[in-house]
Amino acid sequence: MKQDDVDLIRVAKQGRTEAFEALVRQYKAFVFRTAYGILRNNMDAEDVTQETFIKVYHALRGLREERTFPSWLARVTVRTALDWVSKHKRQPSVPLDAEQVSTRTDVHASADIRMDVERALDGLTTEQRTIVVLRDVQGFGYDEIAEILDIPIGTVRSRLHYARAQLRELLTRGDTRGDTR
């Protein structure tokens, strides 16, 4: 984390709204990607992003070490997204529209792969999707994920292993469903 970010967080902790707004601008995409990875729905992810930043605004003064902000923010995001799932009990949806896919061969193949991965992610449990998003999408280390999810590091490794195995199974099963590519 850059020193400028640490300084910005310190100023935001003092209640300076312009500093907090700068934090929101800087971390909004990170929060959205994390929420979307769990929820698989744009509108829900936007709502969770907004709710996350409201929670962060109220709790920021309690953050002891500014350098832990990214993992702390991820923890707030994950918990908010999981609460959202519990509260709304919706199945995730993939907002990919066939009309959005270009007809160029390389783009088409890339879109097909993306759609297969999106469908496979939808086949994971929320717990599995969360751990895959934190590790493979957001790039958190095992120790950081353990802290974010408040679970032992061995559990992180185990869950990630089984989530990836399930993802691989879903992708393999998808390849045998009779696609004519």
Automatic annotation (TrEMBL):
Pfam family, one: Sigma70_r2
Keywords: DNA-binding, Sigma factor, Transcription, Transcription regulation
Oxidoreductase in keyword set: no
Database matches in CDD domains: Sigma70_r4
Boundaries of every RNA polymerase sigma-70 region domain copy: 23-90
RNA polymerase sigma factor 70 region 4 type domain ranges (all copies): 115-167
Source organism, top-level taxon: Bacteria
InterPro entries: RNA_pol_sigma-70-like (IPR039425), RNA_pol_sigma-70_dom (IPR014284), RNA_pol_sigma70_ECF_CS (IPR000838), RNA_pol_sigma70_r2 (IPR007627), RNA_pol_sigma70_r4_t2 (IPR013249), RNA_pol_sigma_r2 (IPR013325), RNA_pol_sigma_r3/r4-like (IPR013324), WH-like_DNA-bd_sf (IPR036388)
Keyword Transcription regulation (UniProt): yes
PANTHER family referenced in this protein's UniProt entry, alphabetically: RNA POLYMERASE ECF-TYPE SIGMA FACTO (PTHR43133), RNA POLYMERASE SIGMA FACTOR HI_1459-RELATED (PTHR43133:SF8)
Similarity field: Belongs to the sigma-70 factor family. ECF subfamily.
Name of the protein described by the UniProt record: RNA polymerase sigma factor
